[in-house]
Amino acid sequence: MRGTLAGKTIFISGGSRGIGLTIALRAARDGSNIEIAAKTAKPHPSLPGTIYTATTRIEDAGGHALPLLCDIREEAQVDAAVVATVDRFGGIDVCLNNASAVRLTPILDTPVKRYDLIHGVNARGTFLVTQKCLPHLLKSDNPHVLAISPPLQMEERWFAPHVAYSMGKYGMSLVILGVAGEFRGRVAANALWPRTAIDTAAMAEFKSHIDIGPLRSPEIMADAAHLVLTSDAKTVTGNFFVDDEVLLANGVTDLTFYNPPGVADIDVTRDLFVSSLRELAEGARGMK
């Protein structure tokens, strides 16, 4: 892996568990300063991790952590979290929009209250966190905004089964598209999404929508994110990256490290919003 995040300050929304925490732990091994802005201060009945257990793991990995109880739907709380981060670490170099509300329901089974939650966290939360971090990112020597959100492929199949959730995730990506254009050459803005379903506690929500088979570990997202966040912010921006493509482009050709033991073909559990490797291969053959 090239580059380092040593000494960099990373503001992460929703980093108490899952992909967000794994990215934080990868950065911690470099010696990063990491702010965890999340709502889980006490153990959740069904999901592991709090902002305090995340802090312990980050510091054990070699980083410096600041746990802050923060609902990213609340502007005052985001303001306070950004101020506290700058006061503690002196600035912000990376804004990682990881927090997400998930509910995969069709339109007739989605109460407006649930719709508001999804969009308040996903699209609006990404907009708000990015907006509050930007004045500090503009002072960094290599500033990055990264959202864990999908490529903007406007296909009916990604919206029909769960239009509220899809709109929320695509809203995150639209924020990235706008920020990349507005701040090109000054602040990088990119999105990152997994090719396959990832082995986190959140997968329980997806079981009725994805044919669950072998799952890649979240370390594949952490390693891909590390490559993006250590790239040149002036030139690497406006991209909708997929994890395995980032790794392959950087010379990582053996991805079996991220598979469950003994599993070679991981493509059986494709994530939402991306084409399977088989579809990509068929498309390539069709172009010849």
> What percentage of the residues does DSSP assign to strands (E)?
5-15%
Radius of gyration: 18 Å
Largest sheet, spatial ordering of strands = 3-2-1-4-5-6-7
Secondary structural class: alpha/beta
Written overview of the protein:
With about 290 residues, the chain is α/β, with parallel strands linked by helices. The protein contains ten helices and seven strands. A seven-stranded parallel beta sheet has the order 3-2-1-4-5-6-7, with helices on both faces. Strand 1 (about 10-15), helix 1 (about 20-30) and strand 2 (about 35-40) form a beta-alpha-beta unit. The longest helix has 20 residues, at about 165-180. The chain is globular, with a radius of gyration of 18 Å. The model is unreliable at about 280-288 (pLDDT under 50).
List the helices and strands and how they pair.
Layout: E1 9-13, H1 18-28, E2 33-38, H2 51-60, E3 64-69, H3 75-89, E4 94-97, H4 112-121, H5 123-137, E5 144-148, H6 156-159, H7 163-182, E6 188-193, H8 219-229, E7 240-242, H9 243-249, H10 277-287
Parallel strand pairs: 1-2, 1-4, 2-3, 4-5, 5-6, 6-7
Helix pairs in contact: 1-2, 1-8, 3-5, 4-5, 4-7, 5-7, 8-9
